[in-house]
Write a structure and sequence with these properties.
With 501 residues, the chain is an alpha/beta fold. It contains 17 helices and 14 strands. It has 2 domains: 42-81 and 389-500, Aspartate Aminotransferase, domain 1, CATH 3.90.1150.10; 129-367, Type I PLP-dependent aspartate aminotransferase-like (Major domain) (Aspartate Aminotransferase, domain 2). Bound molecules: pyridoxal-5'-phosphate.
Length: 501
């Protein structure tokens, strides 16, 4: 009996298994969330994937016209050779490994900072969760930093730490998704060209991007007429909720004037828009006469009714002179937010427990660096000034080279870490691109990579005025490498023009 029954059970079981196997995947490309499929992020797009393949080919001994790939596609400072700031690493290092308190070679001010951070951590360990909004001391230090920066008091209760600025931007944008369908979708105004986190998030949230064009002929400034035009054109298709501003700009490298900022604030007030100010490059201002003005300072100084407007301002450890992208430190300051909305925001981020506490510790050093008279001050200042002055020099190098090449023009890199030159792509090259199913600037960048190993991102990945072509390059490679890169670039461009003119 037992023998007879056993094979039957086995048969049934194998049928069940067979059925389960033949069922196929629950989640397929056809039924998965369509909004996720709509996400595009050129900074890590197909050209960058190809760059990785080329690196492997070179490592395998394949012969090419170049011996290495120069990655100028992403604002990843340390990956491009920038040295970490000693003080920042000492503080985070001691926090992560408290035995280092006993190391006499580490400076007292780094130990004091680490001690203060650890006192704010559960069990005095960086390995414990923090409050959802972040460690109390870090929020206090951020508030103090903002107060000193703007001369206007900041409240730690308005500061929320995040895993990179990206997470905070996505969290705040999520609050604005008040209407989701058809012509009632939430509309979000974004600069064109823009940093693709914005279009990617808008696509994922099924919102409507409202692109306002930056004026290339006027150093990528922002005009009120263009804000009006883009908003009026979008109104029949969506409900505009917010305006995003990136200052200093990525990919365009401009620094907004105070007048520009005041105009944007008045416009946002008139149109009842929430302001999202991406100020992650606030330390990266190089051009003479340019200055960083925070939206919070300008809005507050404009007085009522503007000083009562809602604003989210974002900051990061990834940029500036520190370039600590991998620590994923960031924060948002929420200003004039309805207390009930703030409570909901806190609840929503609580569901993710907290941002990376190592990133929070790194952020603390950014906002509370060594002061004059402290043991680490001189070294810190030297390292900070060196990075910023080299970035300024590299910005000038890149723009002057591009402007000296026929068929190219490039606005000054006033700030941030990128140049966004304009290229005249000849008709013949545009046709060749079309035949390959590529956008003309993609075709150009693809050829540039294959011929020189220089990896940059086509302008179409950021958005650009129709009929114009660009690419974005970072100004991050070390001066010598950048010089070499520009040499390779010039040769390529001349040959490309000869081939397609
Ligand atoms: C304008 C802008 N905002 C936000 C981010 C995201 O920074 P994080 O590394 O802090 O997420 C970047 C990164 O390049 C950026 O350029």
């Amino acid at each position: 009996m037992f023998r007879l029954r056993a094979p039957t059970t086995m048969l049934c079981k194998s049928k069940v298994v067979e059925k389960a196997l033949s069922r196929g995947k629950v989640l397929t490309i056809d039924n998965m969330n369509p909004h996720v499929k709509n996400i595009e992020y050129a900074v890590r797009g197909p050209i960058v994937i190809r760059a990785g393949e080329i690196e492997k080919e070179l490592n395998a001994g394949e012969k090419k016209n170049f011996t290495d790939v120069i990655r100028a596609n992403i604002g990843d400072c340390h990956a491009t050779g920038q040295e970490p700031l000693t003080f920042l690493r000492q503080v985070v290092g001691i926090c992560a490994y408290p035995k280092l308190f006993e190391d006499p070679s580490l400076p007292e001010d780094a130990k004091q900072r680490a001690d203060r951070i650890l006192n704010s951590c559960g069990g005095r360990s960086l390995g414990s969760y923090s409050d959802s909004a972040g460690l109390t001391v870090v929020r206090e230090d951020i508030a103090q930093y903002i107060t000193e920066r703007d001369g206007i008091p900041a409240d730690p209760a308005n500061i929320f730490l995040s895993t990179g600025a990206s997470e905070a931007i996505r969290n705040v944008m999520k609050l604005l998704m008040t209407t989701l369908e058809g012509n009632d979708k939430s509309g979000v105004m974004i600069p064109i060209p823009q940093y693709p986190l914005y279009t990617a998030t808008i696509a994922e949230y099924n919102a409507e991007p409202i692109g306002y064009l930056l004026d290339e002929s006027n150093n990528w400034s922002l005009s009120l007429d263009e804000l009006e035009r883009s908003l009026q054109e979008a109104k029949p298709h969506c409900k505009p909720k917010a305006i995003c501003i990136i200052n200093p700009g990525n990919p365009t490298g401009q620094v907004l004037t105070r007048q520009n900022i005041e105009d944007i604030i008045r416009f946002a007030h008139k149109e009842n828009l929430f302001i999202m100010a991406d100020e992650v490059y606030q330390h990266n201002v190089y051009a003479e006469g340019s200055q960083f003005h925070s939206f919070k300072k300008v809005l507050t100084e404009m007085g009522p009714p503007y000083s009562e407007m809602e604003l989210a301002s974002f900051m990061s450890t990834s940029k500036g002179y520190m370039g600590e992208c991998g620590f994923r430190g960031g924060y948002v300051e929420l200003i004039n937010i309805d207390p009930q909305v703030k409570a909901m925001f806190t609840k929503a981020i609580s569901a993710k427990l907290c941002s990376a506490v190592t990133g929070q510790a790194a952020m603390d050093v950014v906002v509370n660096p060594p002061r004059e008279g402290e043991p680490s001050y001189e070294l810190f200042k030297t390292q900070k000034d060196t990075v910023l002055s080299q970035l300024a020099e590299k910005g000038r190098m890149v723009t002057s080279t591009f402007n000296s090449i026929e068929g190219m023009s490039c606005n000054a890199v006033q700030g941030a870490m990128y140049a966004f030159p304009n290229i005249d792509i000849p008709k013949k090259a545009q046709e060749a691109a079309k035949a390959k199913g590529m956008a003309p600037d993609f075709f150009y960048c693809y050829n540039l990579l294959e011929s020189t190993g220089m990896c940059v991102v086509p302008g179409s990945g950021f958005g650009q005025k129709e009929g114009t072509f660009h690419f974005r390059t970072t100004i991050l490679p070390p001066v010598q490498k950048l010089g070499e890169m520009l040499g390779r670039f010039r040769d390529f461009h001349v040959k490309f023009m000869e081939q397609y003119s």
